[in-house]
Amino acid sequence: MGAIHLRQRLGIESEGGQHVFGYGRNFFHPENWFSIHSLLRKMLRLLWLEERARRNTLAVRLTHNRLQLTGLPESFEGFRILHLSDLHLDVSDTFVQTLVERVQALEYDLCVITGDFRFRTHGAYEAALAGMAQLMPQLSGPVYGVLGNHDCIRMVPGLEALGLRMLLNESVVLRRGEDEIHLAGIDDPHYYRVDNLERACGDIPPGAVAVLLSHSP
Question: What is the SS3 assignment for 127?
Fold first, then answer.
């Protein structure tokens, strides 16, 4: 990922938790407010909506989107990408099992995961890696990912040990016969602001077909 990128990421993470105000691209970051989770739970209980919220969490939906890319090689026509994001795998063991069951029957050519493997924005991440350890055997084909604002750079070795190829301001080539397209990924542009499009796209020829993975659109 580069020494400067690594020092920048680790430096921000070592500040003892993320800031609620005044950092990143937005002024206010409610996801970093330590008490927000318990406050939301109390509000849901008062409104008699807690059980409904739990059911909604487990109601994993599949949405189909058809994209038309100019210049797409003919051999990639109908290429299917399974896109997962904001899994927050350590929030519930039940959710992980539901997700595992949901993806088992799907057919696709490539899987991409665009960040937020962890629920909280700082602290322990072992439970999120354990959730990925359950999910990865159910994902077929190559799996690529990028980090989100909830994720720690120290998670990368554990994620890659499970078979998930992380793209940290870099790109890879996807080939079908003699044809190829490019898949690029940037680190979190929302809070950490360590995204580098120039570096991520440096190896992509001008005019080539490319897909960019980013946690924050």
Answer: helix
What's the pTM value of the predicted model, to 2 decimals?
0.85
Which residue is associated with the tokens 């350590």?
90
**Could you tell me the domains of the chain?**
71-217 (3.60.21.10)
Nearest of 189, 129, 194, 185 to residue 157 by alpha carbon: 129
**Token couple for 109:** 């050519």
Q: How far apart are CA 213 and CA 171, in angstroms?
A: 10
How are strands ordered across the β-sheet holding 110-114? 81-84, 110-114, 143-146, 165-166
Q: Going from the first residue of the chain to its last (217 residues), give the mean pLDDT of each consecutive group of 10, the final group possibly shorter.
A: 82 67 60 64 73 77 92 95 94 88 93 93 89 94 94 94 96 95 94 90 94 92
Task: Give the helix ranges, DSSP H, for 115-200.
Answer: 126-135, 156-161, 197-200
Amino acid in the structure at residue 54: R
Expressed in angstroms, the distance from the first to the final Cα of the chain is: 21
Residue 9, helix vs strand vs coil:
helix
Instruction: Give 146-201 as a 3 state SS string.
Output: ECCCCCCHHHHHHHHHCCCEECCCEEEEEEECCEEEEEEECCCCCCCCCCCHHHHC
Instruction: Provide the token pair at 86.
Output: 């904001």
